[in-house]
């Protein structure tokens, strides 16, 4: 794929899109299956670069992962106590989920390992996982006084359960602790400031690991074994569907059917906010994919209005702020995003990148330390914009350009991180 892509203005988008597998759930499906004693077949796995980083790390620990021609995976795990010492450095690539979750899992193993990733990953905060894991007895050291990867992980003397009040709402930190807690000799209680995505908890239950939830607390008792399912199906990723939800809302004469979208309530902040903005969204065909709720979603063009997005909802739409900023440019009135300072430590500083790159298209966006203020509607022009190597930025810019006067995006191949077919799907739906 070319690194520079030109996107033209488009007429209404119509058709049906089967949404690719959920990235968060795909990572977890490989990790848990890797700890199983019996083979697990995984359907609708997200074949994107981040999830392959997880597969490659698990393979380096001895787990066998096979892929058939249709992309269905079969994982032959090593059992809870069967992972082996990797002979080389483990590479998480661009994936924060891979490096953070594996830090918890590897920290509890009786061997040495080193975890690193690309330039972006080596700049993302790791102290937030190392601090609670150290309280559990794990031995993890990193660059910059253990704030950054590469991380060197040594065998712990023992793994203790902890009671931990999380200072930041982060599913990655919560999950790292839960994975380490699988090896603890005492219970672990984690309390979240605001509930974050609960895919790890649901996946644990799918693997026969009981997880107690009491208000904002999550409790895991010491376990002896796990009981893997034979098959696991990954629902479609609502964070990928988000680009189509906004594109169809802001491009006149659009009607898209989004098939197989995960609608776990810890992820549906985008639906709540778009509905509040006046979007025309219908949820149909509600069903279950294992312990995860799934539906089809029909979205039609609508006149949007600005809204205030408060801190409390941010964890439920954490990855959707860039595309919501695009929606806000087309909405009548002011949109304010608050309590979103976590966006500064993602693949790039997403608050800064949104203001800068949409600014190149002529948009005026005020960047606050913890959010954005966007007055709409604004007319935006064609421009050459940079993705900052951030998949969600690239896709958000493509939607903005499609709805306005077109856009040229540099470093556009980063969409391979979460949605490799994104530009192909967009070009098939276009009515030029
Ligand atoms: O646990 C996960 O799968 C994820 C959690 C979120 O990160 P944080 O835990 O850092 O908020 C999210 O931004 C990321 O895309 C995926
Ligand atoms: C932040 C993201 O992922 P990760 O933290 O896994 O790199 C994302 O997908 O937007």
From TrEMBL:
Report the main location listed first in the record: cytoplasm
Which keywords, in A-to-Z order, does the entry hold? Answer: Amino-acid biosynthesis, Aromatic amino acid biosynthesis, Cytoplasm, Transferase
Where 3-phosphoshikimate is bound, by residue? 23-24, 28, 170, 172, 319, 346
Report residues binding phosphoenolpyruvate: 23, 96, 124, 172, 350, 392
Leader sequence segment:
none
Identify the pathway.
Answer: Metabolic intermediate biosynthesis; chorismate biosynthesis; chorismate from D-erythrose 4-phosphate and phosphoenolpyruvate: step 6/7
- A Pfam family this chain is assigned to: EPSP_synthase
Task: Tell me the enzyme class.
Answer: transferase
* Catalytic reaction list: 3-phosphoshikimate + phosphoenolpyruvate = 5-O-(1-carboxyvinyl)-3-phosphoshikimate + phosphate
Q: Where is this protein found?
A: Cytoplasm
The annotated active site, in chain numbering, is 319
* EC numbers: 2.5.1.19
> Where do the Enolpyruvate transferase domain residues begin and end?
9-426
Cited InterPro entries: Enolpyruvate_Tfrase_dom (IPR001986), Enolpyruvate_Tfrase_sf (IPR036968), EPSP_synthase (IPR006264), EPSP_synthase_CS (IPR023193), RNA3'P_cycl/enolpyr_Trfase_a/b (IPR013792)
Q: Name one GO molecular function term.
A: 3-phosphoshikimate 1-carboxyvinyltransferase activity
This chain's function reads:
Catalyzes the transfer of the enolpyruvyl moiety of phosphoenolpyruvate (PEP) to the 5-hydroxyl of shikimate-3-phosphate (S3P) to produce enolpyruvyl shikimate-3-phosphate and inorganic phosphate.
Q: How does it assemble?
A: Monomer.
Q: Which family does it belong to?
A: Belongs to the EPSP synthase family.
The protein's name is 3-phosphoshikimate 1-carboxyvinyltransferase
Q: What is the lineage of its organism?
A: Bacteria, Bacillati, Bacillota, Negativicutes, Selenomonadales
Q: What gene name does this entry carry? A: aroA1
């Amino acid at each position: 794929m070319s690194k520079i892509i030109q996107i033209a203005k488009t007429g209404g988008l119509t058709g049906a899109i089967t949404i690719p597998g959920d990235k968060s759930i795909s990572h977890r499906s490989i990790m848990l299956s890797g700890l199983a004693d019996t083979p697990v077949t995984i359907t609708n796995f997200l074949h994107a670069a981040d999830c392959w980083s997880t597969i490659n790390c698990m393979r380096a620990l001895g787990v066998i992962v096979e892929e058939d021609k249709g992309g269905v995976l079969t994982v032959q795990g090593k059992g809870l106590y069967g992972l082996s010492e990797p002979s080389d450095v483990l590479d998480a690539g661009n994936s924060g989920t891979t490096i953070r979750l594996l830090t918890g899992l590897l920290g509890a193993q009786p061997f040495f390992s080193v975890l690193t990733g690309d330039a972006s990953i080596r700049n993302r905060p790791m102290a937030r996982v190392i601090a609670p894991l150290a309280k559990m007895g794990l031995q993890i050291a990193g660059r910059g006084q253990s704030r950054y990867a590469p991380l060197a992980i040594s065998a712990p003397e023992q793994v203790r359960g902890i009671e931990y009040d999380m200072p930041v709402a982060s599913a990655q930190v919560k999950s790292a602790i839960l994975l380490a807690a699988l090896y603890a000799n005492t219970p672990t209680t984690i309390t979240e400031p605001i509930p974050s995505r609960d895919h790890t908890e649901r996946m644990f239950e799918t693997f026969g690991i009981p997880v107690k939830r009491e208000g904002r607390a999550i409790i895991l008792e010491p376990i002896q074994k796990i009981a893997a399912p034979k098959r696991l199906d990954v629902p479609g990723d609502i964070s990928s569907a988000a680009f189509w939800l906004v594109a169809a809302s802001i491009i006149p004469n659009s009607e898209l059917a989004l098939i197989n979208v995960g609608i776990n309530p810890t992820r549906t902040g985008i639906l709540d906010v778009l509905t509040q903005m006046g979007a025309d969204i219908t949820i149909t065909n509600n069903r279950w994919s294992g312990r995860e709720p799934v539906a089809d979603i029909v979205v039609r063009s609508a006149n949007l209005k600005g809204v205030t997005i408060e801190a409390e909802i941010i964890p439920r739409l954490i990855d959707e702020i860039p595309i919501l900023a695009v929606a806000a440019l087309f909405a009548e009135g002011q949109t304010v995003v608050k309590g979103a300072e976590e966006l500064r430590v993602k693949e790039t500083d997403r608050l800064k990148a949104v203001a800068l790159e949409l600014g190149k298209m002529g948009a005026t966006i005020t960047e606050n330390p913890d959010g954005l203020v966007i007055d709409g509607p604004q007319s935006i022009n064609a421009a050459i914009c940079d993705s900052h190597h951030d998949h969600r930025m690239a896709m958000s810019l493509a939607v903005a350009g499609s709805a306005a006067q077109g856009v040229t995006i540099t470093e556009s191949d980063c969409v391979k991180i979460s949605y490799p077919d994104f530009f192909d799907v967009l070009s098939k739906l276009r009515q030029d």
